[in-house]
Design goal:
The protein is mainly α and 158 residues long. The chain contains 6 helices and 2 strands. The chain has a two-stranded antiparallel sheet. α2 packs across α4 and α3 packs across α4. The longest helix has 25 residues. The radius of gyration is 18 Å and the shape is globular. Pfam families: MarR_2. This is HTH marR-type domain-containing protein.
Length: 158
C-alpha cells in the first residue's frame, strides 16, 4: 500500500489534535467505566492487570502504575474483587505479598464493550501504509514512555 497524501501540520496543530483526542478519550473512559459498573480508576487498574497477563502484578505494582497509595489500591482491589473482576492469589515466592489476576469472564465483558471501538480504529489504521503505522507505533510508544517519566518526576503521590 502506498501512503496517501496527508495535509501538512505544525507541531502546535499536532499537539492540539492530541489534546482533543485525549479529552475525548477521557470522556469515553468515564462512559465505558459506567457501562461496566466501575470507576475510571478501577477500570484503569483492571486494564493494567489485563496488560500484565501471566506476570501477575502485586498491589504495590498497581499502586505505582495508577499513582495512588497502597492503601488506596487496597480499596480499588476490594471493589474489583467484589464486582467479580479480579482474584487475589498468594505470591509463590513471598507469602506476605498477593498477586492480582483478572477473571476471564470479566476480561471478556470489558473486551466486548471495547471491541466496536477497536474495530473502528483498525479500519482507521487501514488508511495508513506499513511505514506510517511504524511511525505511529514508534510515536505512541515513545510518547507513553515520556508521559510515564513525566508523571514519575512531577506528579508522584506519596
Amino acid at each position: 500500500m502506498q501512503a496517501k497524501p496527508r495535509p501538512a501540520a505544525t507541531p502546535e496543530q499536532a499537539l492540539a489534535a492530541m489534546d482533543h483526542l485525549i479529552a475525548t478519550h477521557l470522556v469515553g473512559q468515564h462512559e465505558i467505566a459506567q457501562q461496566v459498573g466501575l470507576s475510571v480508576t478501577d477500570l484503569t487498574c483492571f486494564a493494567y492487570v489485563i496488560e500484565a497477563g501471566e506476570n501477575l502484578p502485586t498491589a504495590g505494582d498497581l499502586a505505582a502504575r495508577v499513582h495512588v497509595t497502597t492503601g488506596a489500591v487496597t480499596g480499588i482491589l476490594d471493589r474489583l474483587e467484589r464486582a467479580g473482576y479480579i482474584t487475589r492469589r498468594p505470591d509463590p515466592t513471598d507469602r506476605r505479598r498477593v498477586r492480582v489476576a483478572a477473571r476471564p469472564d470479566a476480561v471478556a465483558r470489558v473486551r466486548e464493550v471495547y471491541e466496536p471501538y477497536y474495530a473502528r480504529l483498525t479500519e482507521l489504521f487501514a488508511d495508513y501504509s506499513p511505514d506510517e503505522i511504524a511511525v505511529l507505533n514508534d510515536w505512541f510508544t515513545r510518547a507513553s514512555t515520556l508521559a510515564a517519566n513525566y508523571l514519575e518526576e512531577h506528579c508522584r503521590t506519596e
